[in-house]
């Protein structure tokens, strides 16, 4: 029997495609309500509300919420839900600004509730195995290649290329979250160039230079681009000073190492998120990691701005 009745706020594509089946696969949770569906149909038998305030009032025994809206309003939504006595799970990025993430963590602590900022790429079994392989080693070189087709993955979503939409860092934060999960040393942004379409307020591509502050640093770079058509590229190449080399491909789903067959774990990023959320709830413990998001903010802070051709959906 489910322990927690959960509501989804922001019932869009990611909620329908990932959160609903993950909740169904996790026995600790029961989907009890959705809101802000944007015209999409809720699962059979699940009540739907126009807004989260109506949902909170209409489902009095709701225990937890998953906030899957665009990032801009997430802090205010999380604050209202925490004040109403609900635990909260946040899609990535967890809020509109890094400061807002800290506010959510503070409010959860003050309310005695759990807040969980999630980064789904970290939940790949291949990413976890890569982290184990790199533990205790010293980074030598790094190359992140994160190139995909904006029109394919976010058709018509103009908000994502507006100010506050993060542009290429909406998917790019997945790569950064993998780095913060697997690398044996903390990594920083040391330089960046962001490429802004002439008619948009968010970058469509980024070239990043990383650093760890160690003398062993070689070439530590990242290339992110939302203009790639055809095959999509999501890879992270790492080399350490002792000669260990590994590559994560397919967004962290597959681990490649020399002389070994590729390791591919189960396709269970989101079920693993909800498994961890259940454990956090059982312990009464929050997990609000802002480091991947801080790297995004640092890239904007340090970046050279370059204008490129206009982009239209």
Any overview of this molecule?
This protein is α/β, with parallel strands linked by helices. The protein folds into 2 domains: 4-117, NAD(P)-binding Rossmann-like Domain (Rossmann fold, 3-Layer(aba) Sandwich), CATH 3.40.50.720; 121-266 and 297-308, Dihydrodipicolinate Reductase, domain 2 (2-Layer Sandwich), CATH 3.30.360.10. The protein has 9 helices and 15 strands. It has helices spanning 13-24, 52-58, 74-83, 98-111, 125-134, 150-153, 169-182, 269-283, 291-302, and strands at residues 4-9, 29-35, 48-49, 64-67, 87-90, 115-117, 139-147, 188-197, 205-211, 220-225, 233-240, 245-249, 254-256, 263-264, 304-308. The protein has a 9-stranded mixed β-sheet. The protein is globular. The model has no long low-confidence stretch (mean pLDDT 95).
């Amino acid at each position: 029997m489910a322990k927690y009745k959960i509501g989804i706020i922001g019932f869009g594509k990611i909620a329908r495609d990932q959160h609903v089946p993950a909740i169904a696969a996790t026995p600790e949770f029961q989907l009890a309500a959705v809101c802000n569906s944007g015209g999409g149909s809720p699962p059979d038998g699940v009540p739907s509300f126009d807004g989260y305030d109506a949902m909170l009032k209409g489902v009095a025994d709701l225990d937890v919420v998953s906030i899957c809206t665009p990032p801009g309003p997430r802090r205010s939504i999380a604050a209202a839900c925490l004040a109403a006595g609900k635990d909260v799970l946040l899609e990535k990025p967890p809020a509109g600004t890094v400061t807002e993430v800290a506010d959510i963590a503070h409010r959860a602590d003050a309310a005695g509730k759990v807040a969980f900022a999630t980064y789904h790429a970290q939940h790949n079994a291949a990413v976890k195995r890569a982290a184990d392989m790199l533990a205790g080693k010293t980074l030598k070189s790094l190359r992140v290649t994160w190139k995909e087709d904006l029109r394919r993955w976010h058709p018509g979503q103009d908000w994502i290329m507006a100010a506050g939409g993060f542009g290429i860092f909406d998917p790019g934060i997945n790569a950064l979250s993998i780095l913060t999960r697997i690398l044996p040393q903390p990594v920083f942004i040391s330089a960046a160039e962001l490429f802004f379409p002439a008619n948009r307020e968010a970058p469509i591509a980024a070239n990043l230079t990383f650093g760890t502050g160690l003398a062993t640093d070689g070439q530590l770079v990242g290339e992110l681009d939302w203009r790639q058509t055809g095959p999509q590229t999501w890879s992270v190449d790492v080399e350490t000073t002792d000669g260990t080399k590994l590559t994560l491909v397919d967004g962290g789903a597959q681990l490649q190492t020399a002389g070994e067959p590729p390791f591919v774990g189960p396709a269970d990023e989101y079920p693993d998120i909800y498994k961890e959320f259940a454990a956090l709830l059982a312990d009464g413990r929050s997990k609000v990691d802002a480091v991947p998001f801080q790297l995004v903010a640092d890239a904007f802070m340090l970046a050279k701005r370059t204008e490129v051709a206009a982009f239209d959906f």
